[in-house]
Design brief:
Blueprint lengths: L1 H8 L5 H32 L10 E4 L6 E3 L11 H47 L3 H6 L2 H43 L1 H48 L1 H6 L3 H53 L5 H13 L1 H29 L19 E10 L4 E11 L3 E5 L6 H7 L8 E6 L2 E2 L5 H5 L2 E5 L9 H5 L8 H10 L3 H5 L18 H15 L3 E5 L7 H15 L3 E5 L3 H4 L4 E6 L2 E6 L1 H5 L4 H8 L7
Parallel strand pairs: 5-10, 5-11, 8-9, 9-10
Antiparallel strand pairs: 1-2, 3-4, 3-6, 6-7, 11-12
The structure holds adenosine-5'-diphosphate (ADP) and magnesium ion (MG).
């Protein structure tokens, strides 16, 4: 209920338009009623051989109210009853059409706008979250919420609301008509309504349940495909082809079964409904025959009644499914609102200070860190002085990236503290801290934008000269000028394809332009081939000049030039020293050196 009212609250800015939509839909309902009323004169006057030019009564207001005649609405040039009725039928349909059009547009305008508002709110919220938020919420799920779940909400606010309004007013109009024409008969007919609604609602529920099951089975199949195709080498190596094929066939058999069940239920609906309708009409005919014979009613009156009654089926059917679509939207909105309600765990203190330019040292003081419960870093003590190049080595999973991520405060330490020139990171503003740190990682992030904008990313106003200067220092200028549109070439899936080394040098140019005093290089060259690595290595050397650098590397050429080498082993520092110190110490570094670095001697 909370979610539902919150969902409705989103419409608040659009209330005037919403009222307009309601009024227009009321006009639609009135037109439906008028159309049914016009059936009466069609049979009694237009198709009657004894034509008379007496006024055609449309509606007599109750309690001795005035009668409303069709003549009152017809242009004076039209005199014969058939021309009047013909004109009225077209006019009513025209007015209904115009109203439906604008009402549908208004309601969908609201729906689309609400969706835009929600998306914007959600995106702004998500992008402000800490890194640990992103490690807890997989990218796929976030994307699905911002796209699919919101799409479902849009369905509720536009499609469902439009339908609900239109069908309610139509139903109301038709109800007025049947009660006006014969309230005894109207009451008798309404008693039959539950007999139509309940079976159709039940079948509807059954159909939805089986279509959901069908989706589950489909997902199962997709899962098998994904598993076996991506793990095809394992499947083949273990000779499991026929086992997997049998598993697949069992899954498709289950899907077939569920789908056929759906088809059976679906195919049953309309014959069943038609049968109910036929029974109703039959009973009605028996009654009507009697009444007409005794002149209690005209033929036109009965046909109009029957017409209105049959017309009521559609709104009744649709209204029963509206709630369902609304519930779906409420379910989807739950995930959206949950995300909107997430509080940033990594907060700036209200009295956070802006860090002055880096001038002394960064200190890890007895730092422990864990993502969830499992400890990743334990008792890390480390001092990085201004101007130093500190290398971190260790096996994969030792915690090197994690350690580096603590410096820009992507995560908060679990215990201990990190000091930036003596100031605890948690006491500083995030922007003043991150402005002083440049990062180049293994997976280069380039945006689908021009080369120029990718290099200038995050900078307010940059001159073309400074971008070019950064690109030259990053050894990227040459290949950039060879691109079809030089610096204005758009990088992206459809744009120019760049090699890993080229992308990396653009990332280095970006870091050079940012010109931050502290630099984190996280395996920046490890995914490159030897040739492009040499270029990137040179570019990195240009980048490192005059900066404080934390470099995570797996190649000796980078590591041995470091002022100090930190060996990380399962989250703890096991050795610190220069290359010369460590290479003969008989510890992990020496072993790594002998095993891993041996082939890349400079
Ligand atoms: N976002 C995360 N959530 C939970 N565990 C993580 C996350 N990132 C890394 N880890 C775990 O932390 C450990 C250290 O990872 P990492 O710092 O990336 O190691 P390295 O960079 O030395 O290879 C690994 O066991 C890894 O599985
Ligand atoms: Mg790593």
């Amino acid at each position: 209920m909370m979610k539902a009212s919150r969902l409705i609250g989103l419409i608040r800015p659009y209330i005037p338009r919403f009222i307009l939509a309601i009024l227009l839909m009321a006009v639609v309902g009135a037109c439906e009623a008028l159309f049914a009323l016009l059936i009466k004169p069609v049979f009694d006057r237009v198709l009657d051989v004894h034509q008379s030019i007496a006024p055609i009564l449309l509606f007599k207001l109750p309690f001795h109210g005035p009668a409303i005649y069709l003549q009152d609405f017809i242009p004076p040039g039209i005199h014969s009853p058939w021309a009047m009725v013909a004109f009225a039928i077209v006019a009513v349909t025209f007015i209904k059409g115009v109203s439906v059009y604008f009402a549908t547009y208004s309601v969908n305008y609201i729906g689309q706008s609400v969706v835009r508002d929600l998306r914007n709110m959600l995106y702004t919220k998500i992008i402000a979250q800490s890194m640990s938020f992103f490690s807890q919420n997989p990218t796929g799920r976030l994307m699905s919420t911002v796209t699919n779940d919101i799409e479902r909400i849009q369905d509720a606010v536009s499609h469902v609301t439009a339908n609900f309004l239109k069908q309610s007013f139509t139903l109301l109009g038709l109800l007025v008509v049947i009660f006006y024409l014969d309230w005894h008969l109207a009451l008798a007919s309404l008693i039959l309504v539950p007999f139509v609604v309940f079976p159709s609602a039940n079948i509807g529920r059954y159909i939805r349940a089986s279509s959901r099951k069908s989706q589950d089975k489909m997902a199962e199949i997709a899962n098998i495909l994904q598993e076996t195709f991506s793990g095809i080498r394992v499947v083949k190596a273990f000779g499991m082809e026929s086992f997997e094929a049998r598993k697949f066939m069992a899954a498709t058999r289950r899907l077939l079964k569920v789908n056929l069940r759906w088809v059976r239920a679906h195919a049953l609906t309309s014959p069943l409904m038609e049968l109910f309708g036929a029974i109703m009409i039959a009973g009605f005919l028996l009654y009507a025959r009697n009444e007409i014979v005794h002149h209690a009613h005209t033929m036109g009156g009965f046909v109009a009644f029957l017409f209105a009654l049959i017309k009521m089926y559609e709104p009744i059917k649709r209204l029963t499914s509206v709630n369902n679509a609304f519930q779906l939207a409420v379910g989807a909105s739950e995930r959206v609102f949950d995300l909107l309600d997430v509080n940033a765990e990594l907060k700036e203190k209200p009295n956070a200070v802006a860090l002055p330019p880096f001038h002394q040292e960064i200190i890890f003081d007895h730092v422990d860190f864990s993502y969830d419960d499992a400890p990743i870093l334990q008792g890390v003590n480390l001092r990085i002085r201004k101007g130093e190049v500190v290398a971190i080595v260790g096996s994969s999973g030792a915690g090197k990236t994690t350690l580096a991520n603590l410096i820009p405060r992507f995560f908060d330490v679990t215990r201990g503290r990190i000091l930036f020139d003596g100031c605890d990171l948690r006491d500083a503003t995030l922007s003043s801290l991150r402005a002083q740190i440049g990062i180049v990682t293994q997976e280069t992030v380039l945006f689908n934008d021009t080369v120029f904008n990718n290099i200038a990313y995050g900078q307010q106003s940059v001159s073309p000269e400074s971008v070019e200067e950064a690109a030259r220092a990053a050894l990227a200028h040459e290949f950039i000028t060879e691109l079809p549109e030089g610096y204005q070439t758009v990088i992206g899936e459809r744009g120019q394809r760049l090699s890993g080394g080229q992308r990396q040098r653009i990332a280095i140019a970006r870091a050079l332009l940012k010109n931050s005093p502290i630099l984190i290089l996280d395996e920046a060259t490890s995914s490159l081939d030897t040739e492009s690595e040499a270029l990137v290595q040179k570019a990195l050397m240009n980048l490192m000049v005059g900066r404080t650098v934390l470099v995570i590397a797996h190649r000796l050429s980078t590591v041995r030039r470091a002022d100090r080498i930190v060996v990380l082993d399962r989250g703890s520092i096991s050795e610190i020293g220069t290359h010369e110190d460590l290479v003969t110490r008989g510890g992990i570094y020496q072993r790594l050196h002998d095993l891993q670095f041996v082939d890349v001697e400079p």
